[in-house]
Specification:
The protein has three helices and three strands; from the N terminus they run βββααα. It is α+β, with helices and mostly antiparallel strands. The chain binds zinc ion (ZN).
Amino acid sequence: MPIYEYRCQDCRQKTSKLWRGFDAPQSILCAACDSENTSRVISSVAFHKSLGSKLQDLDPKYDRMVDTAAANTASSDENAFLRKSTPLSNADA
Ligand SMILES: [Zn+2]
């Protein structure tokens, strides 16, 4: 969903509006002074991203950082539990 920005002609404040659909109104009420004298700022149309697409855009280096951090934790050693346990053949009867 696109976010449209409007500049108030009266107080110069910017108001962002998440608009459902692509036919945004030419003006909205200013969030700061309630003036209707706003105009769309065309240059800075931003698109609202889903969390999924934000994660996809993350640099792969973060995956490696997470892998490295996880490798240094005790739970990363999948054989730790086996080493701690006593084999059945050695167990007291
Ligand atoms: Zn205003």
